[in-house]
Amino acid sequence: MSTEFTLTAGGYTAVVAARAAALRVLQFEGRDLVVPFPEGGPIPDYRGIIAAPWPNRIADGRYTFDGVAHQLEVTEPERGTALHGLAYPLDWSLKESDAGSLTLTCTVGPTEGYPFVLELSARYVLDDAGLHTNVTARNAADAAAPYGVCPHPYLVAGSSPLDEWILEVPARTYLEVTADRLLPVSLEPVEGHAFDFRSARPIGSTEIDHAFTDIAFDAGLARLSLRDPAGTGVGMSWDESCPWLQIHTADKPEPLPNRIGLAVEPMTCPPDAFNSGTDLIRLEPGAGHEASWTIYAL
Predict the structure, then answer these.
(1) Could you tell me the maximum CA-CA distance found in the chain, to the nearest angstrom?
(2) Cα–Cα distance between 290 and 92 in angstroms, integer?
(3) Distance between CA 261 and CA 34 in Å, rounded?
């Protein structure tokens, strides 16, 4: 099986890796819309992956579901959390493809800390309006399962530094987190805060690695825009299956590449939802769930 797949349509080119069903490249007329990563190697910073069966992190890798305690592998040791789900290290299988579309599938579980079985499917469709992604999950076991999902692209507005990019986010509330572990503390209004991007403005030196909610949906879609003052830009829309949005300015200490893209992650639930229960999806046996989003050039 090929380890990656290329789609072309309407001036766009997308390259999707079998590993983690990750979006490796997305370009419009030769311009990067996401931060790419090299073919065949490890995926840096979870770029472009499908994070399932949970987005973000679970404190200590521990949670209780239906009265049973579970212990996941701690995959973010510096913060003591289980990060970005279990589908990340898997090679997804090709179900079908053509020049402008692609469907990859994988099975998650049963495994340590997640004794459930989910059948996941990621469908990518490229057309004149951008790259559309639809992720479905079906509970293939005989017990209910906890579930959440998000994509993990790092968007690129253009060639100017990230600090100059102009961001608009239709969210009224952000989730305050602990500085050391990025675990939830409280919901706070963006009004009067550095995280208020309801009106488009430059990101500046603001460092963000937070979830947002109370998102404004128009006709069932929310839209984020990211523009370079030089005139290029990238947008992302998502449906109401994702009432949360993680944004990260990709801040890194020297000598690592710093602030090279803006992670934009529409999420079905917030960080540590396996413990809080907030917007956690309960998939009964045989039940399914869908989430969709689109990335497009501006």
Answers:
(1) 55
(2) 18
(3) 7
* Length in residues, the chain: 298
Cα–Cα distance measured from residue 287 to residue 54, given in angstroms and rounded to the nearest whole number? 17
Which of these, 292, 198, 238, 249, lies nearest to 35 by C-alpha position?
A: 249
pTM, 2 dp? 0.97
3-state SS, residue 87: coil
* Low-confidence stretches of the chain (pLDDT beneath 70): 1-2
Closest CA to 238 of 142, 106, 150, 108: 150
Q: Residue 144 is part of a domain; what is its CATH number?
A: 2.70.98.10
CA atoms of 41 and 34, how far apart (whole Å): 17
- 9 vs 101: CA distance, rounded Å: 9
Q: What is the pLDDT of residue 2?
A: 58
Q: How many domains does the chain have?
A: 1
What is the domain extent for residue 36?
A: 4-297
* 76: β partners: 81
Place of tokens 């949970």: 54
Res 41: pLDDT? 85
| DSSP-derived 3-state class of residue 280 | coil
**101: its two tokens:** 């579309």
φ, ψ at 201 (rounded to 5°) = -160, 160
Question: How would you classify the pairing of strands 209-215 and 154-155?
Answer: unpaired
276's enclosing H/E stretch is: helix 273-276
Pair of tokens at residue 264: 């934009």
Give the residue carrying structure tokens 């602990």. Answer: 178
pLDDT 10s digits, 237-291? 999 999 999 999 999 998 999 999 999 999 999 999 999 999 999 999 999 999 9
CB 145 within 8 A of CB 283: yes
